[in-house]
Amino acid sequence: MTGTRCAVVRVYNEATVLASVLRSLQPVVDEIICVDDGSSDGSAEIALAAGCTVVRHAINLGGGAALATGLHYALTRTEHEHVVNFDADGQHLPADAAQMLEVAKRTGVDVVLGTRNRHEATMPRSRRLLLRAALAYTRRTTGLRLTDTHNGLRVFNRHALRSIRLTQGGMAYASELESSISRAKLTWTEVPVSIVYNEYCLAKGQSNLNAVNIVYDLMLSRLQRAT
Question: Which domains does the chain have, with CATH numbers?
């Protein structure tokens, strides 16, 4: 596949919104790699019909495992210079991804991270409070002076793809990814982005259940390091 930009999209039973998400993202990148994380609703077929590359997990393994699969595929099976991590549930804006790609190309940094620090007013209060706690934890454990954490919109160059190691399948992968950035001494920057808390995200528990998962994974990560 020729081109310089691709997107890795984790798909898990997103048929309700997937087609529109893919259509909106296609003008921004040269290829979309959809990791079908054990979907049972025909999401993979929707992605194939949209002309995307589809990599399948036989069962649901979680966001971390899907991202690891997608990044490995992009590194070993394509020659794209930059890879966007983009969620399939409609919460990200393609315009933000395009801006982050431009920053990555212009500055030459290894990783560009989306940050919601200017958009807290639109975030459900429960999620805002828990993400602040997660941010404080990440800053303390990684030394990275981030303004956001667990934001699913990211851009990586090929050096970052070769350096990042992900072993956590669930939500803890975000903290693990940031630790990898710190250990590998990757260069990084943040770009303000918007998060769309639409009806679909809220209906599937995007605002509250995932926030609880973040707290659980932070506790689990600490216990693992202590043993």
Answer: 5-226 (3.90.550.10)
